[in-house]
Design brief:
This protein is α+β, with helices and mostly antiparallel strands and 82 residues long. The protein has one domain: Alpha-Beta Plaits, CATH 3.30.70.3090. The protein is 29% helix and 35% strand. A four-stranded antiparallel beta sheet has the order 2-3-1-4, covered by helices on one side. It is globular and about 35 Å long.
């Protein structure tokens, strides 16, 4: 599976609004059927939210429509090292 890091500007998030954002992104990813949200990381000082996704779909990185529907401004493929 390929992992992706999605980045989105999320100003003034609280724990409850961040949870709602994450639920919305998770549901949209599930509805798309091509990606799965693994985790969300929020950096309050920068008001940036990072979403870690995984997928086995080839060419997913170039699917701008999908990423826009997930509310992701920028996406890159990533390699996770434990």
């Amino acid at each position: 599976m390929t992992q992706y890091l999605g980045e989105a500007y999320r100003p003034s998030r609280t724990a409850s609004t961040l949870a709602a954002d994450t639920a919305r992104v998770r549901a949209a990813a599930a509805a798309a059927g091509t990606v799965r949200l693994l985790r969300t990381i929020y950096v309050p000082g920068d008001e940036i939210c990072f979403y870690i996704f995984e997928s086995d779909a080839n060419g997913l990185l170039d699917d701008a429509g999908l990423w826009a529907s997930l509310g992701v401004d920028r996406v890159q493929s990533v390699i996770e090292v434990d």
